[in-house]
Design a protein that fits this description.
single chain, mainly alpha, Arc Repressor Mutant, subunit A
């Protein structure tokens, strides 16, 4: 067995794999300031024993068996697995938030290279989702008597973040495909929507990761604000479209694409609300409704309108 005092570098390598999602051994070596050959030497036994698997994913069950090598306190296997997945979700949130920022900055600056960088980031987002799913499967294998539904919720949160990444991709694709820059009035609406979306994502993930369910009123208020801005933005687009000559098909296509950007921000807000509803179920077994938030709002509005009629 390898001596404990010689495993600090190996632990650092495994931490890089877990928390920073490297694509190559060269990337791991660069982050740690060591040679690629040394990384290969350290990882070979881990690969042979199945601790490190394809696309640099750790098998949590086998990783747990090696934990004594790193002189760390050994918690229960179920807790260790859940804690690690939560940490992966935190890193995934950080990445998705940066992806959204990059996509929107590309739109503001009308820079296609920046938009392309955001689209590349979405591939990493997808890879992170697969890593979380793999870890969930392993956690259930480690302790088949754990609360299955709660463990599976981790996958729902990761999928929600991946969907936010997809909507960020819509924003980046707008910059890649359209030749017109966004007018100042419309850009002001989009900036407000972007700021609101980032707040909602942050609050919803803080609620899930740290059990801050008291943040829901803030998210609900931001959701209302998001829809008020959305209504103004779509009205602005409709006005500009009405002023566009019918034969100007390029400009008409531009406005349709711009409306998809507005809808992308709306969907990010809806997803954020889904995340905090999921947190309520995770921590306090508060059942979630199966009706999407946007339909709930329509039903509520209809009820209010009917009430006024009576």
């Amino acid at each position: 067995m390898i001596k404990k005092n010689k495993n600090n570098t190996l632990k650092d390598v495994l931490d890089i794999i877990v928390y920073e999602n490297p694509s190559t051994q060269d990337e791991i070596a660069e982050k740690l300031g060591i040679t690629r050959r040394y990384v290969t030497k350290l990882l070979q036994p881990m690969v042979k024993k199945g601790v490190v698997r394809r696309a640099y994913i750790l098998d949590l069950k086998k990783y747990d068996e090696f934990s004594e090598m790193f002189e760390e306190e050994k918690t229960s296997r179920e807790y260790a697995g859940s804690y690690l997945i939560k940490d992966m979700l935190k890193n995934m949130y950080d990445h998705v938030s940066k992806e959204l920022e990059t996509s929107f900055q590309a739109l503001i600056n009308h820079k296609k290279d920046q938009a392309n960088e955001a689209l590349k980031m979405d591939f990493i987002t997808n890879n992170m989702l697969e890593k979380v799913r793999s870890s969930i499967e392993t956690t259930i294998t480690i302790n088949p008597y754990s609360e299955f539904s709660k463990t599976m919720i981790f996958g729902e949160i990761a999928f929600a973040l991946e969907r936010i990444g997809d909507h960020s991709g819509i924003i980046a694709n707008f910059t890649m495909q359209e030749s017109y820059e966004v007018e100042s009035e419309m850009l002001a609406y989009l900036k407000d929507m972007y700021k609101t979306a980032q707040k909602m994502i942050y609050w919803s993930m803080d609620a899930f990761l740290n059990e801050k369910l008291k943040l829901k009123p803030e998210i609900m208020h931001s959701e209302d604000k998001m829809h008020q801005i959305q209504k103004k933005a779509l009205n602005c687009i409709a006005t500009q479209m009405a002023e566009t000559p019918f034969e100007d098909k390029d400009r008409s296509t531009y406005y349709l694409s711009l409306s998809r950007v507005v809808k992308a921000f709306e969907r990010i807000g809806d997803i954020s609300l889904e995340i905090i509803d999921t947190a309520g179920e995770f921590y306090h077994n508060i059942p979630r409704t199966t009706t999407p938030e946007r339909f709930r709002r329509r039903e509520l509005k209809l009820e209010k309108d009917l009430g006024k009629m009576h």
